[in-house]
Amino acid sequence: MQHNQDGKRELFNTRAGFILAAVGSAVGLGNMWRFPYVAAEGGGAAFVFLYIILTLAIGIPLMLSEFSVGRGAGLSPIGALRKLGGGGWSLLGFMYVITGFIILAYYSVIAGWVVRYAIDGILSGFPANPGEQFGIVTTGMSPIWYHLAIMGTTILIVSMGVQKGIERAALVLMPVLFSILILLAIWAFTLDGAMEGYAVYLKPDLSELLDPYILSQAAGQAFYSLSLGMGCMLTFSSYLSKDSNLGGEATTIAFSDFGVAFTAGLVVFPVIYALGIQGDVSESTVGALFIALPGAFVAMGDIGRIVGVLFFVALIVGAVTSAVSLLEVVAASVIDEFKLPRKPASIAAGVLIALLGLLPASSIDLLGVIDKLAEAMLALGAFFMAIFVGWVAVGAADEMRQGASERSKRMVPLVMTAVRFILPPVILFATTYAFIAVVREYQGAFGG
Ligand code: PHE
To answer: Which candidate, 104, 101, 102, places its Cα nearest to that of 323?
Structure first.
């Protein structure tokens, strides 16, 4: 257990601190790099619409489920699942820790590319040949150094603790991200291609709405973006006091996350259509924005340089706060399971993850496969969480009511019905597709 001076588990200091830390976990590369891309591929407005429905119907109940387990047990995933479900369920906790390990290992590599783009943008402007630049940034020693720098920063924040590290970083960093993004969205509105960009982003293509592949992509993106299915929200909520309104917090966090993803689309699409470079974007998930956006920034001259640097800085902020939450899952488990103090636990976990990250840092094809694998593991983790809270854990509904507002209390039966009957089949379907996508990506990358 993690104790502070009074011998109690360390808790978040303020409600705003918890919410911003959870939003900081949710908002990251998934919102500003992944969401605009998958939305474009998935039929624009139809995808956005589907995504909102899934966030409400699946995302919020699942987040509330994780909260009820985390706050209910007051432990990180392995211990919490063991305490509420018995020894066998601690295996799910282990799977969460492994998922956190895998995601952070490649997430930190991409965050490292972003840092290099921001620094290059400040020092020498964006390159005339963005495709070539992407190759330079992602091969050789450069991605390794930047990945290690991100891991170092992440370890530092996590090792400082819940209040002094995680909460303080979120309180400082998240407002910076929101401000930059709103500024950029206003600027993008003034661009020549803005209306054309919005049209592609927001024009519904209803035929794609019924495509099961798109549905599964939207579900996978929702788990990824909301940091669900790997015990991240569970771990954060273990630092909450009993008087917090779990349903209200889950709703606020989910809407904030969607708001940032949606706003990122309002920036990215006008920029791309102002420059007529839409062809570049649909080429590959991993490279798309790293090639298309800098290309647009360089074509826009001095303004483009400023805007581009701001965009990448916002992306760094989002990525670091998400990386912190990923490491926290692993570190908290080491702390709770091995009764280690926080500092050595976060350093040991962080160093191992940094080492694992050397693989995706050296191979972008491998990174693409791991990205798909991460999504599939989150979906699987979300499926078992729904089963656990819906059918196994006793007292989940009571925990959801504890500290809740009257309105949240009235929602609990509806939430529990969704968790029992709607979430398992829908998530299982998404999980199956997600694992098929892993195989496809693997075959695409390595043949066979
Ligand atoms: N939600 C983060 C993002 O959108 C990624 C993440 C996934 C963080 C899972 C923690 C857990 O970038």
So the answer is: 104
Q: For 315-353, what is the HEC assignment?
A: HHHHHHHHHHHHHHHHHHHHHHHHCCCHHHHHHHHHHHH
8 lies in some domain: no
Ligand 1 atom 6: residue of nearest CA: 227
Judge whether 5 lies within some domain.
no
Q: Which two tokens stand for residue 73?
A: 């047990």
CATH code for the domain in which residue 189 is found = 1.20.1740.10
Write out 101-145 in H/E/C secondary structure. Answer: HHHHHHHHHHHHHHHHHHHHHHHHCCCCCHHHHHHHHHCCCHHHH
Residues within 6 Å of ligand 1 by CB = 25-26, 28-31, 103, 224-225, 227, 230, 232, 322, 325-326
How far apart are the CA of 33 and the centre of ligand 1, in A? 12
**Does the reported pTM lie above 0.70?**
yes
Tell me, in angstroms, the distance from the centre of ligand 1 to residue 25's CA.
6
Q: What are the tens digits of pLDDT across the range 371-401?
A: 999 999 999 999 999 999 999 998 999 999 9
What is the tens place of the pLDDT at every residue in 235-272? 999 999 999 999 999 999 999 999 999 999 999 888 87
